[in-house]
Design a protein that fits this description.
Layout (H helix, E strand, L loop, with lengths): L3 H15 L1 H11 L5 H33 L3 H21 L14 H10 L2 H13 L3 H23 L1 H42 L1
Length: 201
């Protein structure tokens, strides 16, 4: 059994949050000056680190929430506010691009985390795992997570080719559209959280 609706919803949400087109110029900036073989290796490392972080939070996220006595509506509202901040940065073009450092493996930090496996993606994965507890739902959720990270790896792996095809203007356009979609998603998540609080009162 496979829930295509759950897969599609989570995949699109993670795509908007993790923003593969927008990560392309950042990846190029962080790995500039390195041989193509090293760039390909760093693309794999960054995707693997992000997948590992997301997997840990997906598996033990509920336990963390229970230990901290955090209810789902509170997490939804907080996550919505966080996503809104990210969306505003995407819309205004104020996302800071970290500079390359020679002493640190940038594929691990900051590329793998927090740029790819950031708070917004972590919140969405925790909620998805918690809200879809059936077998088909869990298969769809983890399939979407895996598929998203494969996309991230492919985008970074072929970033030099992609940037030549869509140019800088294309990256900016896609980033702005992602910001609009993410802002709407953030507001809807806040509304859903507040609604649950009101109904639970």
């Amino acid at each position: 059994m496979f829930d295509a609706a759950v897969f599609g919803s989570l995949f699109l949400t993670l795509f908007v949050i993790m923003d593969p087109p927008g990560i392309t110029p950042i990846f190029l900036a962080l790995t500039s000056g390195r041989p193509a073989k090293v760039q390909r290796k760093m693309a794999w490392q960054a995707a693997a680190v992000a997948l590992g972080v997301i997997t840990v939070f997906g598996l033990v996220g509920n336990q963390i929430l229970a230990y901290l006595h955090i209810d789902v509506p509170a997490l939804m509202i907080a996550g919505g506010l966080l996503l809104l901040l990210i969306a505003l940065d995407l819309l205004t073009g104020k996302m800071e691009e970290p500079k390359q450092t020679k002493d640190v493996n940038v594929a691990l930090v900051p590329l793998g985390m927090p740029l790819l496996a950031g708070p917004g993606a972590i919140v969405q994965v925790i909620l998805a795992v918690q809200n879809h507890d059936s077998f088909s739902g869990q298969v769809a959720v983890w399939s979407a997570i895996l598929a998203m990270h494969i996309v991230l790896w492919l985008v970074m792996r072929y970033s030099l080719l992609i940037i030549r095809v869509i140019k800088d203007g294309g990256v900016v356009l896609v980033t702005r559209l992602a910001g609009m979609m993410l802002s709407a998603l953030a507001v809807q998540q806040i509304i859903n959280g507040v609604t649950q609080v009101i109904h639970g009162a």
